[in-house]
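Q: Joint fold for the lines below.
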Amino acid sequence: MSWQSYIDDHLMAEIEGNHLAAAAILGHDGSVWAQSSTFPQFKPEEISAIVNDFENPGSLAPTGLYLGGTKYMVIQGEPGVVIRGKKGPGGVTVKKTTMALIIGIYDEPMTPGQCNMVVEKIGDYLIDQGL
Amino acid sequence: MEAVVVDAGSKLLKAGFAVPDHPPSMIIPTQMKCLPADETSTEASLHEIIIDPVVRGFISDWDAMEDLLDHVLYNGLGWEIGNEGQILFADPLSTPKAAREQLVQLMFERFNISGFYASDQAVLSLYAIGRISGCTVDIGHGKMDIATVIEGAVQQISSRRFELGGLDLTNLLAQELGKSYPLVNLSISDVEKIKEQYACCAEDDAAYEKLQLSCPEEQHTLPDGQVIKIGRARYTVGEALFQPSILGLQAHGVVEQLVHCISTVSSENHRQLLENTVLCGGTASMSGFEDRFQKEASLCSSAIRPCVVKPPEYMPENLSKFSAWVGGAIIAKVVFPQNQHVTKADYDETGPSIVHRKCY
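A: Joint structure:
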């Protein structure tokens, strides 16, 4: 299965009537494996800050999580595994797999719970596959 | 049927159907007595074992908790086996992941509930007074949580939990009374009642110093008929929250701790947090506490000066004793109808770890 189909058929698929605003699967180095057309243009420093937070949980909270220039307030995640950010009614969930980062950006009416379900499920699947 | 909201504290368990402007229908002691089944009545009182399912805010004895919840849900609130409803729990700060998973597992597998949600007590206490951002100083029986919340999300790095609460104050009072009355046999539950009745906070530390030198004494009759006099010990108990050195702890007083927590948040949010400070928890409802807190707060530099918020008029009296429960009743009305909770299907598909994804 191509990486793009992970985005189109799974991450961007509908869950309970809602779907993500944008999604991407990136390598830990920031390389793009696949992304949705709606995914914002991000900077390499933003990705390295995210990877750094997985190594040193709590490092991103004081400054906030930046993605494509948008600032998200860091909220309760799972140290070393999931980073969650919030911006008004929307937000972002980043799940770390063995070799990749799965990023899902959601907006209302999608709920944070629904975003987590989608992103983390794909993440768990990839981890099982060794990716 | 309305969802049930449960806030299991170290001393009192608050439970009831989610009716927001009312206090919880059940406020019962969390402490349980274990009576061995085969004792005769004369020996029973010697063999009673006191069990505390909730210690320092966290559930520690899961079997006892299961029994307690069984009583609360089926006997107290009238749930029927086979027709269980939805339930919302209020968790303290820093609840371990494993504990949250164990709770959701207990609820779905033993109680067969149809829906589950859990939220932080700090967030709920703020909802109870109509805010989504602010800070809470929750002083309970077993723990004290100082939490900063922004837009409904607890800021973990600037929130702190202290293992200091009403329980430690009761022990302090027992110690003080023991010094004045070494021969009187005071049980902890007697001291607890004395504390609730008499403990208060001095107006400021100068007033406290004066009271230490001379303090009017009140007479109190113990259940066994003996009469003791309660003097400055009642103020010592209140002062311990502002000067933890009284308890032998190397920590700052509660107002300083709050200011410290707020200062670790980015400054653009300071105003919002300071202007929306909530005092909640059983111990914080001690007479004189709020006034003393406000007074100590006004001594802080004007840049970081907490300001305590008053609850809305339509809320019941004594809201601080069950504000987390009321907040739970408020969000239960939003979360369950909008299907943001963990359903049985979700649990069956993903297992207990679903609680971290859907509830926060």
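Q: Anything notable?
A: Chain A has a mean pLDDT of 93. Chain A touches chain B through 21 residues (CB under 8 Å).
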